[in-house]
Structures are given as structure tokens and as C-alpha cells.
Amino acid sequence: MNSKTLLLSFMTLLFLVGCGSKQYYTPETPVTNPSFSSSDDIVSFSRDGATLSSGKVLTTTGELKLKLENGYRFINQSAGFVIIADREGNCKVIKDGKSRETKFVKAMVAGAMVGDNALVYLLKDNNFGIYDFSKKSILYNNKDEKVFSIDTRVANPIQIDNLVVIPLLNGKLTILNLQTLKISKEIFVSTENFLNNIIFLKRFKNSLIAATPHTLIAYSNRGKREFKREISEVILDKDSIFVFSKDGQISKLDESLTVQDEKKFRFAHFSISTVYKDRVYALDKQGFLIVSNRDFTKHSVYEFPEVEGYSFVSDGKIYYDGNEINLDSLSY
Fold this sequence. Notes:
mainly beta; Lipocalin; Methylamine Dehydrogenase, Chain H; 2 domains; four-stranded antiparallel β-sheet
């Protein structure tokens, strides 16, 4: 046997062993054949919204009265404006049926928000800045290191008083003063080399909560606290932070990132998760939907079709692969 044949045989053996050793979540008594309805497929999604094949747009609070033209996808809803963009760098800001637009020649828009008649933007090449609609020009532009792989759940910038927090694609938060157009602070969430963009960014009580797929932080005047996990999803609900991990663990934290309750569903791989009406929902990629109380002392599992594409939660409903699950019909 020559060396090439030996190498090929060895690689095939490793592949077969890897496939055979993969573990799957197996609930004991799932509820089979629960009711669900059909919907349009999701063709694009981000942290704050999903674009359907029909051109309709879903946000976390419901469907927008807007139908996107072909090639555009939803970015964010900010200060009463809807921000959409295409792959060619074109970006539109829509309000009351009127549209203002600009084009970024270097890269497409990854995240954006509107404030003080200006667009705060983040591009796929990690350029970020401020575009003034009244002047039709860029007031500020900066660029951080280029990244070559990102998680599709790119967080959008948020404004806090006269500061805007821009979640970069390399695991860093840049805080920009809107009055002076100078960087006030930079905060590293994590420094991994792969899939390290900010996937979650919200203000929570007196803290700034941010996450990459590898780390969750809480930043306040008391400093920075970290919670290390391989993160699938982060949800803020009432006084708690829920972290859904890629190994099937769900953790409920307080503002200081101290664990209050925790439950592990062995070998579960969550596709989408949420907290809705005091119930915790986590959809495994095989189609098993876990429904639990907030303390994880009681739960039920429902069996739905396997998840193959994008998934999104909007106004108490889970959408994926042309399926729509009404969460109000499920309980633990």
C-alpha cells in the first residue's frame, strides 16, 4: 500500500469514528405530533430581525408593515426608522413611507442604528462610523482589524446618552462620543481568532451586557465581570440574564453574572431559545423543543421537525424551515 492510499484510509477512518461518536439529545418522553402551522422560509436573519422569502420582515415584537424588494434584508429598527441593506453596500432608512439611502463602496452593512439624523454603521469589513443624512456625507469613519469569519447574529450599535456603543466583528466594543466624534473607550469581550464578533449587546439595569460566542461580560462603574461559555443565545428577562450554551446547559444569572439556577440537557444543541411569559424555551436542532419554568425544576419536551436552516423568535412564535410554532400553546 503506497503512502497516498494509506493516508486516505487513515482520514476515512477518522471521519467514520467522528461520525459514529457524535451524541444527540434523547428526551425520555417527548410529546409527539404537537400542532404547528406553516410560514415562509427565512432567507436572512440578524440579532434583531428576520427577512422572509416573501419579502416580509419579522422583528422580535412582530411583523413589520413592510415588504422588502428583492436583494434587501432587514438590519434594525431604530428611533422609528427601519434600516435595510443589500449585498452591494446599498443602505436604506425608511420612516412613514419615505426612504433615504446611501451606498458604502467598500463592504455591505453588518449592523446599524439611527440617532440625531445620522446613521451609525458597522460594515462587514469592520469599518465603522457615522453618516449624516442632511449633509449626505460621512462625518466619521474608522476601521479595526479585518475578520474572515463571523457569527450571523451580528449585534447592532446602541446609544446611551451622548455615547454610542459599536459592537465590532473582532470581539471588541468601541464607545464613541457623538458630540466630539472621539473614541471614549474600548472594551474587549473576548479575543478568540474564530467567530468572535459581538452577538449580543443591551443595557441591563446599571450594566452593559455584551457577548461573543465565547464570553459574556457585564460592564459597569464597578468594572468588568466575565462569564465563560460557548454561547448559543443570551436573553434578558426581568431581573435575570439567561445564557443558553452550546453543550445544552441553560444558566440563569443576575446582573453580577452570578449563577442563580442552572440545568443541563445532555447533548442538546440549541438552534433558537427565548424566555416568554415566565417560560423558558430552547429548540434543539433535532426538533425537540424544551419548555421549562424559570427555575428549571419542571419541564416538558415537544417533538417538532428537525431544524435545517435559519430560525427566529417573533412575538411568541418560533419560525424555522417554513414552520411556525405558537409558544402560547405549549407549557411544562
